[in-house]
Design goal:
Length: about 400
């Protein structure tokens, strides 16, 4: 590589958000480089793994609204790449019927006219076999939700970016960012100069932002991604129309527990705890806390009697959390030609296409397609500090 390359835009971090931002920039005829510190594909961040849940079941309307176009953009990528990326399974949402969060989710689905079926304790097991509904819990099924094939989706976005003339440079760690009208990005292999930079570095966001004099209130946690073996093969299989699920609150925990039907690993159902323990992304596996697995074991034993209550496979993922669990989508407060996508808090993957579009709009100085006030940096106020 030459020591000095010039681009319209450099995107740092080739996870799902960075890959879609780069793809959108290339679609807008911007000469774009996508930089990634690890050799692609890799399992070090937050965008690996074979599946994610696609849903509109949120307590907040703004997420449900964004998902309308997100579904369209995923379908568009499927057509462009000629690859199946989504499978409709439905999403079962369970939680204490009178709890604020469960009621808000139901209201969001109703307000946004999302196809939904309400289940009762009398008819629950006719529709959802091999699951025990807790007494006092409500249950609704978001009919159009389903499984997103994550690894396949990331690969498709990167391939389409390259087809549009985009340049991917993996195995290049960014070592410095010098802001200015032209931003200089130094890596382990050379130097890039760009009119605009987009930072989508996941757990490494603050490390890069330190070069620009900014630190965000982000916390990196390690999630144990657990797969549980079926006692009777096929009981929770995607081919038998078993849905994804979210338990908003349970006897075991106030945190969400979520799951996806047996699919990527035959005979194994993915069930995870939507929280983790603080971790250093460069030393992820030194974090050995298994308290989340203990919670899951109790939950699985009580609510999923058709699974052995001991995980057969445990993998790892990193979440980068904001205090309010909403994303950061904004221009740098000092340098408007540096755009930040960060803090996706364990629920950002499915929004990849729309986040890529929004980061592209911010980078090009266009009016964003959605109200970004829930995602602006200024909401943190005292928690946002200068790194200089």
């Amino acid at each position: 590589m030459s020591t000095n390359q010039e681009f319209d835009c450099v995107v740092i971090g080739a996870g799902v958000q960075g890959s879609f931002a780069a793809y959108q920039l290339a679609k807008h005829k911007q000469k774009t480089a996508l930089l990634e510190q690890f050799v692609l594909p890799h399992t070090r961040g937050s965008s690996h793994g074979q599946t994610r849940i696609m849903r509109k079941a949120y307590a907040e309307d703004f997420y449900a609204n964004m998902m309308d176009e997100t579904y369209e953009l995923w379908a568009q990528l499927e057509r462009e790449a000629g690859v199946k990326l989504y499978r409709q399974t439905g999403l079962l949402v369970m939680g204490p019927e009178k709890s604020h969060y469960f009621e808000q989710v139901k209201k969001t689905l109703q307000r946004n006219r999302v196809p939904m079926v309400t289940l009762t304790s009398d008819n629950f097991n006719q529709h959802i076999p091999h699951v025990k509904l807790t007494e006092g819990d409500g249950a609704v099924v978001e009919v159009t939700a389903g499984v997103l094939y994550a690894d396949r989706a990331l690969k498709a976005a990167q391939a389409q970016f390259q087809k549009l003339g985009g340049v991917i440079r993996d195995n290049e760690m960014v070592t410095d960012i010098k802001p200015g009208p032209i931003v200089t990005v130094s890596t382990s292999a050379g130097v890039y100069r760009a009119k605009r930079v987009v930072i989508t570095a996941g757990p490494w966001a603050n490390r890069l932002l330190a070069h620009t004099g900014l630190q965000l209130p982000l916390e990196v946690v390690k999630i144990n991604v657990c797969y549980w073996k079926e006692k009777a093969p096929g009981s929770y299989d995607v081919r038998r129309r078993f849905p994804c699920f979210i338990s908003t609150e349970s006897q075991e925990s106030k945190e969400h527990i979520y799951g996806l039907p047996s699919n990527e690993y035959p005979g194994l159902m993915k069930i995870c705890y939507h929280a983790g323990s603080k971790a250093d992304p460069d030393q992820r596996d030194q974090q050995t806390d298994r308290s989340d697995i203990d919670i899951l074991q109790r939950y699985v034993k009580r609510c999923f009697p058709g699974l052995f209550p001991e995980p057969a496979v445990v993998e790892s993922c990193l979440y980068t959390l904001t205090p309010d669990r909403h994303f950061v989508l904004d221009c740098h407060p000092t340098y408007s030609n540096i755009v930040i996508g960060a803090g996706f808090s364990g629920h950002g993957f499915k929004f990849g296409p729309i986040i890529g579009k929004l980061l592209c709009e911010l980078s090009l100085g266009e009016v964003p397609s959605y109200d970004l006030s829930p995602f602006r940096i200024r909401r943190f106020q005292a928690n946002t500090k200068s790194a200089l």
